[in-house]
Amino acid sequence: MKGNYEHYMQKEIHEQPDSLTTTMRGRLTSGEGGKPKGVVLGGLKEHVDTIRRSRRIIFIGCGTSYHAALASRQIIEQLSGVPVTMELASDLLDRQCPIFREDTAVFVSQSGETADTLLALEYAKKRGALCVGVTNTVGSAIARGTHCGVHINAGAEIGVASTKAYTSQIAVMTMIALALGQDSISNREMREAIIDDLLRLPEKVREVLKLDEAMRELARELVNEQSLLVFGRGYNYATALEAALKVKEVALMHSEGILAGEMKHGPLALVDETMPIIVLATRDAIQQKQQSVIQQLLARKGRLIIVCTEGDSVKMCPSGKAKVIEVPHIADCLQTVVNIVPLQLLSYHLTVLRGFNVDQPRNLAKSVTTE
Ligand code: M6R
């Protein structure tokens, strides 16, 4: 089943060009053959108008699925005009968060069986919200219990660390954003550009997978570190959280994803010449702000690894005093899919080098079916 790969996680990382293709198959029209560019999501068709009229959309999930939702929040808000709030399922239940009939609650779960997410679904249903599922498992409890939804079709994910499901969840939620914005004339150009880039996404991921050896090399440099910080902002705040989760979950190394805008409110105190820090600084609407973060970190002798867009190395680090990883460019809302791939590879190689179990990390289960 693992083919030429040593571990499922490794196989699933490398499978992403194919899993993304499967996720989008039959759902996007490219504008050829006289059909307009657009998206068709069969499982949501009847409910799109209700979602557009919602007072708010609440994204609910745990772990990586929560991060995928966070990565998609901005594009859903932008294209639908509906405010999106984020909820970790356990916290929503602990707080007994108010939910209303006018809300749409979107439950994101690879397995479709996560206990907290499932309990949050029962909770939201009782309060009359429209419940939408985004799952990878046909017939799962969440797929059955929601009013409507979209399967991500990423194929079985065996490794406990979620990789290909994460990227497919983002692709699906981007398509949901496109479906919600479909009637707006003012967004048309933007929607069409995103559709073009969704269709290019598998190829971009194939390209970025070529960084495998470079990430193994980086893992060798970091193998004995105690801690690794990851700074991101905008769409890439989710990338920072997800990269840090991967590193702690499988490589059993402390890692923290940090919103770069919060840097001066505490995390800056951790910066010295020894602490490795990954900074996500690919080309997007807020790249200039990340440029300034890099300068401030370098001024404090930070030990930086910068992830930037191909051709931007000198612009992002004119002094050359940082390690740079260049990745292909794509639409802002999809850049997080490209950016997470080298960091998935890094966590994989760190785990192998540190001698830990890649597919069955200590104390963790693939599906968390108890609260
Ligand atoms: O099956 P789910 O997506 O609901 O699972 C949620 C989390 O338990 C899961 O994403 C977990 O964080 C992963 N092991 C992370 O790689």
From TrEMBL:
E.C. numbers: 2.6.1.16
Pathway: Nucleotide-sugar biosynthesis; UDP-N-acetyl-alpha-D-glucosamine biosynthesis; alpha-D-glucosamine 6-phosphate from D-fructose 6-phosphate: step 1/1
One MF term in the entry's GO annotations: glutamine-fructose-6-phosphate transaminase (isomerizing) activity
Keyword Transferase: yes
Keywords: Aminotransferase, Glutamine amidotransferase, Repeat, Transferase
Signal sequence annotation: none
An annotated GO BP: UDP-N-acetylglucosamine metabolic process
Domain SIS: 47-186, 218-361
Catalysis: reaction(s): D-fructose 6-phosphate + L-glutamine = D-glucosamine 6-phosphate + L-glutamate
Record carries keyword Transferase: yes
Protein name (database record): glutamine--fructose-6-phosphate transaminase (isomerizing)
Source organism: Klebsormidium nitens (Green alga)
